[in-house]
Protein backbone atom coordinates (compact mmCIF):
# COMPACT_ATOMS: atom_id res chain seq x y z
CA UNK A 1 0.00 0.00 0.00
CA UNK A 2 1.19 3.51 -0.82
CA UNK A 3 -0.18 6.87 0.39
CA UNK A 4 0.02 9.61 -2.25
CA UNK A 5 -0.88 13.28 -2.05
CA UNK A 6 -0.42 16.59 -3.84
CA UNK A 7 -0.98 20.26 -3.10
CA UNK A 8 -4.60 21.36 -2.82
CA UNK A 9 -4.39 24.84 -4.35
CA UNK A 10 -3.95 24.07 -8.06
CA UNK A 11 -7.42 23.04 -9.20
CA UNK A 12 -9.86 20.13 -8.78
CA UNK A 13 -8.41 16.67 -9.29
CA UNK A 14 -9.94 13.98 -11.49
CA UNK A 15 -10.89 11.85 -8.46
CA UNK A 16 -14.15 12.45 -6.61
CA UNK A 17 -14.22 12.10 -2.83
CA UNK A 18 -17.46 10.15 -3.22
CA UNK A 19 -20.46 9.87 -0.94
CA UNK A 20 -21.31 13.53 -1.41
CA UNK A 21 -18.26 14.56 0.62
CA UNK A 22 -16.67 17.97 0.12
CA UNK A 23 -14.33 20.11 2.15
CA UNK A 24 -14.65 23.83 2.81
CA UNK A 25 -11.63 26.07 3.16
CA UNK A 26 -12.05 29.85 2.82
CA UNK A 27 -8.25 30.26 2.91
CA UNK A 28 -7.59 28.05 -0.13
CA UNK A 29 -6.21 30.06 -3.05
CA UNK A 30 -7.86 27.95 -5.77
CA UNK A 31 -11.10 26.41 -4.48
CA UNK A 32 -12.94 27.27 -1.29
CA UNK A 33 -15.30 24.31 -1.84
CA UNK A 34 -13.70 21.17 -3.25
CA UNK A 35 -15.35 17.77 -3.71
CA UNK A 36 -12.28 16.11 -5.24
CA UNK A 37 -9.47 14.11 -3.65
CA UNK A 38 -5.89 15.38 -3.45
CA UNK A 39 -4.69 12.24 -1.69
CA UNK A 40 -5.20 8.54 -2.40
CA UNK A 41 -4.41 5.21 -0.79
CA UNK A 42 -3.00 3.03 -3.58
CA UNK A 43 -3.21 -0.78 -3.44
CA UNK A 44 -0.33 -2.04 -5.56
CA UNK A 45 -1.47 -5.66 -5.68
CA UNK A 46 -4.93 -4.87 -7.08
CA UNK A 47 -3.89 -1.68 -8.92
CA UNK A 48 -6.76 0.17 -7.24
CA UNK A 49 -7.04 3.26 -5.10
CA UNK A 50 -9.19 4.78 -2.38
CA UNK A 51 -9.72 8.57 -2.27
CA UNK A 52 -8.63 10.32 0.93
CA UNK A 53 -9.56 13.78 2.20
CA UNK A 54 -6.93 16.38 3.04
CA UNK A 55 -8.34 19.71 4.10
CA UNK A 56 -5.21 21.87 4.17
CA UNK A 57 -2.35 22.31 1.73
CA UNK A 58 0.42 19.70 2.03
CA UNK A 59 2.73 21.37 -0.48
CA UNK A 60 6.33 21.20 0.76
CA UNK A 61 5.33 19.38 3.93
CA UNK A 62 7.53 16.85 5.69
CA UNK A 63 6.73 13.43 7.12
CA UNK A 64 7.87 10.41 9.11
CA UNK A 65 6.47 7.11 10.38
CA UNK A 66 5.70 6.32 14.01
CA UNK A 67 6.57 2.85 15.38
CA UNK A 68 2.92 1.76 15.04
CA UNK A 69 2.88 2.50 11.30
CA UNK A 70 1.11 5.86 11.50
CA UNK A 71 2.30 8.40 8.93
CA UNK A 72 2.72 11.85 10.49
CA UNK A 73 2.84 14.76 8.05
CA UNK A 74 3.91 18.18 9.32
CA UNK A 75 3.48 21.64 7.87
CA UNK A 76 2.85 22.66 4.30
CA UNK A 77 1.87 25.81 2.47
CA UNK A 78 -0.61 28.61 3.14
CA UNK A 79 -3.30 27.27 5.51
CA UNK A 80 -1.31 24.06 6.04
CA UNK A 81 1.93 25.48 7.38
CA UNK A 82 1.01 25.02 11.09
CA UNK A 83 -0.88 21.73 10.68
CA UNK A 84 -0.05 18.17 11.74
CA UNK A 85 -1.78 15.34 9.86
CA UNK A 86 -1.85 11.66 10.80
CA UNK A 87 -2.74 8.68 8.65
CA UNK A 88 -3.14 5.29 10.35
CA UNK A 89 -3.22 2.06 8.31
CA UNK A 90 -6.70 0.99 7.26
CA UNK A 91 -8.86 -1.42 9.25
CA UNK A 92 -11.57 -3.00 7.08
CA UNK A 93 -10.89 -0.37 4.39
CA UNK A 94 -11.74 2.43 6.84
CA UNK A 95 -9.05 5.10 7.09
CA UNK A 96 -8.45 8.75 6.32
CA UNK A 97 -6.30 11.70 7.29
CA UNK A 98 -6.82 13.25 10.73
CA UNK A 99 -5.72 16.89 10.83
CA UNK A 100 -4.82 19.02 13.85
CA UNK A 101 -4.73 22.72 12.89
CA UNK A 102 -2.41 25.25 14.55
CA UNK A 103 -0.46 22.46 16.27
CA UNK A 104 2.99 23.66 15.23
CA UNK A 105 4.42 26.67 17.05
CA UNK A 106 6.21 27.89 13.91
CA UNK A 107 5.45 27.85 10.21
CA UNK A 108 6.86 24.75 8.49
CA UNK A 109 7.20 24.94 4.71
CA UNK A 110 10.13 23.71 2.62
CA UNK A 111 11.85 22.25 5.70
CA UNK A 112 14.42 20.45 3.57
CA UNK A 113 17.34 22.12 1.82
CA UNK A 114 15.91 24.03 -1.13
CA UNK A 115 16.57 24.72 -3.96
CA UNK A 116 19.91 22.88 -3.96
CA UNK A 117 18.08 19.75 -2.86
CA UNK A 118 20.28 16.86 -1.85
CA UNK A 119 19.22 13.69 -0.04
CA UNK A 120 20.29 11.88 3.10
CA UNK A 121 20.00 8.45 4.69
CA UNK A 122 20.94 6.61 7.87
CA UNK A 123 23.06 3.67 6.73
CA UNK A 124 21.89 0.23 7.95
CA UNK A 125 23.04 -0.65 11.46
CA UNK A 126 25.02 -3.82 12.19
CA UNK A 127 23.66 -5.16 15.48
CA UNK A 128 26.20 -8.00 15.52
CA UNK A 129 29.00 -5.62 16.45
CA UNK A 130 29.65 -5.03 20.17
CA UNK A 131 29.67 -1.28 19.57
CA UNK A 132 27.05 -0.26 17.03
CA UNK A 133 28.36 2.23 14.48
CA UNK A 134 25.91 4.91 13.40
CA UNK A 135 26.65 6.38 9.98
CA UNK A 136 24.76 8.90 7.88
CA UNK A 137 25.32 9.78 4.25
CA UNK A 138 24.33 12.93 2.34
CA UNK A 139 24.50 12.93 -1.46
CA UNK A 140 23.98 15.26 -4.41
CA UNK A 141 22.80 18.86 -4.53
CA UNK A 142 23.89 21.91 -6.51
CA UNK A 143 26.75 24.43 -6.36
CA UNK A 144 26.20 27.86 -4.85
CA UNK A 145 24.33 30.40 -6.98
CA UNK A 146 22.95 27.59 -9.15
CA UNK A 147 19.33 28.62 -8.72
CA UNK A 148 19.95 32.21 -9.75
CA UNK A 149 21.95 31.01 -12.77
CA UNK A 150 19.15 28.63 -13.75
CA UNK A 151 16.62 31.46 -13.66
CA UNK A 152 18.95 33.35 -16.02
CA UNK A 153 19.01 30.38 -18.42
CA UNK A 154 22.38 28.87 -17.48
CA UNK A 155 22.20 25.18 -16.56
CA UNK A 156 25.44 23.87 -15.09
CA UNK A 157 26.23 20.51 -13.55
CA UNK A 158 24.71 19.36 -10.27
CA UNK A 159 26.89 17.90 -7.51
CA UNK A 160 28.25 14.34 -7.66
CA UNK A 161 29.75 14.20 -4.16
CA UNK A 162 28.53 12.28 -1.12
CA UNK A 163 29.55 12.89 2.47
CA UNK A 164 29.61 9.95 4.88
CA UNK A 165 29.85 10.59 8.63
CA UNK A 166 30.17 8.15 11.53
CA UNK A 167 28.19 10.14 14.09
CA UNK A 168 28.88 7.58 16.82
CA UNK A 169 32.59 8.53 16.84
CA UNK A 170 33.81 10.82 19.58
CA UNK A 171 35.30 13.16 16.96
CA UNK A 172 33.53 12.37 13.69
CA UNK A 173 34.93 13.53 10.36
CA UNK A 174 33.49 13.46 6.86
CA UNK A 175 34.49 10.83 4.32
CA UNK A 176 33.84 12.13 0.80
CA UNK A 177 32.93 9.86 -2.10
CA UNK A 178 31.76 10.59 -5.63
CA UNK A 179 28.78 9.16 -7.48
CA UNK A 180 29.23 8.14 -11.12
CA UNK A 181 26.52 10.68 -12.10
CA UNK A 182 25.87 14.25 -10.96
CA UNK A 183 22.44 14.56 -9.41
CA UNK A 184 20.12 17.03 -7.69
CA UNK A 185 16.68 16.17 -6.23
CA UNK A 186 17.58 12.47 -6.04
CA UNK A 187 15.84 10.11 -3.62
CA UNK A 188 17.79 7.67 -1.43
CA UNK A 189 15.98 4.52 -0.30
CA UNK A 190 17.31 1.76 1.96
CA UNK A 191 16.82 -1.65 0.33
CA UNK A 192 16.21 -5.01 2.10
CA UNK A 193 19.71 -6.09 1.02
CA UNK A 194 21.27 -3.31 3.11
CA UNK A 195 22.21 -1.38 -0.02
CA UNK A 196 21.04 2.14 -0.85
CA UNK A 197 19.41 3.07 -4.14
CA UNK A 198 19.88 6.63 -5.42
CA UNK A 199 17.20 7.28 -8.01
CA UNK A 200 15.50 10.02 -10.11
CA UNK A 201 16.55 13.67 -10.07
CA UNK A 202 18.28 15.96 -12.56
CA UNK A 203 21.86 16.23 -13.76
CA UNK A 204 21.77 19.99 -14.19
CA UNK A 205 21.00 22.87 -11.83
CA UNK A 206 18.43 22.96 -9.00
CA UNK A 207 14.96 22.19 -7.74
CA UNK A 208 12.16 24.60 -8.52
CA UNK A 209 10.00 25.58 -11.45
CA UNK A 210 11.82 25.48 -14.80
CA UNK A 211 15.14 25.39 -12.92
CA UNK A 212 16.48 21.93 -13.86
CA UNK A 213 17.44 20.00 -16.98
CA UNK A 214 18.73 16.59 -18.09
CA UNK A 215 16.65 14.16 -15.99
CA UNK A 216 18.77 11.36 -14.51
CA UNK A 217 17.17 8.09 -15.60
CA UNK A 218 19.98 5.84 -14.33
CA UNK A 219 19.56 4.52 -10.77
CA UNK A 220 22.71 3.93 -8.75
CA UNK A 221 23.13 1.24 -6.08
CA UNK A 222 25.43 2.12 -3.17
CA UNK A 223 26.88 -0.79 -1.19
CA UNK A 224 28.05 0.60 2.17
CA UNK A 225 30.15 -2.43 3.17
CA UNK A 226 32.17 -2.68 -0.06
CA UNK A 227 35.65 -1.24 -0.35
CA UNK A 228 35.86 2.50 -0.84
CA UNK A 229 35.88 3.57 -4.52
CA UNK A 230 34.01 0.38 -5.37
CA UNK A 231 30.66 1.06 -3.69
CA UNK A 232 28.62 2.60 -6.55
CA UNK A 233 26.97 0.44 -9.21
CA UNK A 234 24.90 1.82 -12.09
CA UNK A 235 21.64 0.08 -13.01
CA UNK A 236 19.36 -0.08 -16.06
CA UNK A 237 17.83 3.32 -16.92
CA UNK A 238 14.18 4.13 -16.31
CA UNK A 239 12.10 4.77 -19.45
CA UNK A 240 10.29 7.91 -18.22
CA UNK A 241 11.86 11.35 -17.81
CA UNK A 242 11.15 12.78 -14.34
CA UNK A 243 12.25 16.03 -12.73
CA UNK A 244 10.97 18.17 -9.87
CA UNK A 245 8.32 16.65 -7.57
CA UNK A 246 8.89 13.01 -8.53
CA UNK A 247 9.24 10.50 -5.69
CA UNK A 248 10.43 6.96 -4.95
CA UNK A 249 9.49 4.52 -2.18
CA UNK A 250 10.14 0.89 -1.17
CA UNK A 251 7.35 -1.69 -1.41
CA UNK A 252 7.03 -4.77 0.85
CA UNK A 253 7.91 -7.02 -2.11
CA UNK A 254 11.25 -5.23 -2.59
CA UNK A 255 10.37 -3.20 -5.68
CA UNK A 256 10.95 0.55 -5.86
CA UNK A 257 8.10 2.43 -7.58
CA UNK A 258 8.70 5.96 -8.83
CA UNK A 259 6.01 8.39 -9.88
CA UNK A 260 5.10 11.91 -10.77
CA UNK A 261 7.05 14.87 -12.12
CA UNK A 262 6.08 18.48 -12.64
CA UNK A 263 8.76 21.15 -13.11
CA UNK A 264 6.13 23.78 -13.99
CA UNK A 265 4.15 26.30 -11.94
CA UNK A 266 0.91 24.60 -13.02
CA UNK A 267 0.15 21.24 -14.55
CA UNK A 268 1.32 21.34 -18.16
CA UNK A 269 0.87 18.30 -20.40
CA UNK A 270 1.56 19.75 -23.86
CA UNK A 271 4.08 21.85 -25.79
CA UNK A 272 6.76 21.76 -23.11
CA UNK A 273 10.07 19.93 -22.97
CA UNK A 274 9.13 17.98 -19.83
CA UNK A 275 5.32 17.57 -19.55
CA UNK A 276 3.63 16.95 -16.21
CA UNK A 277 3.91 13.21 -15.58
CA UNK A 278 1.19 11.22 -13.81
CA UNK A 279 2.47 7.70 -14.45
CA UNK A 280 3.95 5.17 -12.04
CA UNK A 281 6.67 2.68 -12.87
CA UNK A 282 8.53 0.18 -10.73
CA UNK A 283 12.25 -0.58 -10.58
CA UNK A 284 13.32 -4.11 -9.63
CA UNK A 285 16.69 -4.13 -7.80
CA UNK A 286 19.21 -6.92 -8.50
CA UNK A 287 18.01 -9.11 -5.62
CA UNK A 288 14.73 -9.68 -7.51
CA UNK A 289 16.56 -11.26 -10.45
CA UNK A 290 15.63 -14.83 -11.36
CA UNK A 291 19.05 -16.22 -10.40
CA UNK A 292 18.43 -15.24 -6.76
CA UNK A 293 15.00 -16.85 -6.53
CA UNK A 294 16.10 -19.91 -4.53
CA UNK A 295 18.04 -17.94 -1.91
CA UNK A 296 15.66 -14.99 -1.61
CA UNK A 297 13.93 -14.77 1.81
CA UNK A 298 10.23 -15.58 1.76
CA UNK A 299 7.40 -14.91 4.18
CA UNK A 300 5.54 -18.18 4.74
CA UNK A 301 2.44 -19.20 6.67
CA UNK A 302 2.48 -22.20 8.98
CA UNK A 303 -0.39 -24.02 10.67
CA UNK A 304 1.85 -25.44 13.40
CA UNK A 305 1.52 -24.16 16.95
CA UNK A 306 4.93 -22.88 18.06
CA UNK A 307 3.98 -23.68 21.68
UniProtKB/TrEMBL annotation:
* Cited InterPro entries: Gal_Oxase/kelch_b-propeller, Gal_Oxidase_central_sf, Glyoxal_oxidase_N
Q: Which residues form the Glyoxal oxidase N-terminal domain?
A: 2-108, 110-287
Q: Which residues form the signal peptide?
A: none
Q: Name one Pfam family in it.
A: Glyoxal_oxid_N
- TM ranges: none
PANTHER family given in the database record:
GLYOXAL OXIDASE-RELATED PROTEIN, SECRETED PROTEIN-RELATED
Identify this protein by name.
Galactose oxidase/kelch, beta-propeller
Q: What is the lineage of its organism?
A: Eukaryota, Viridiplantae, Streptophyta, Embryophyta, Tracheophyta
Amino acid sequence: MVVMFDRTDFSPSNISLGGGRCWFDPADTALQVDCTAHSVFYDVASNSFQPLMVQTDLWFSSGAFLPNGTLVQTGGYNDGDHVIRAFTPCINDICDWIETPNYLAERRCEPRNYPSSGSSVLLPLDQNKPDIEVKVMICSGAPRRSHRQALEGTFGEAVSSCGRLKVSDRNPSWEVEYMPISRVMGDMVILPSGDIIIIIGAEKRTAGWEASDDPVTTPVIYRPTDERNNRFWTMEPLPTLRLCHSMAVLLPDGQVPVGGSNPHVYYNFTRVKFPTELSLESFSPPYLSVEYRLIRPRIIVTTQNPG
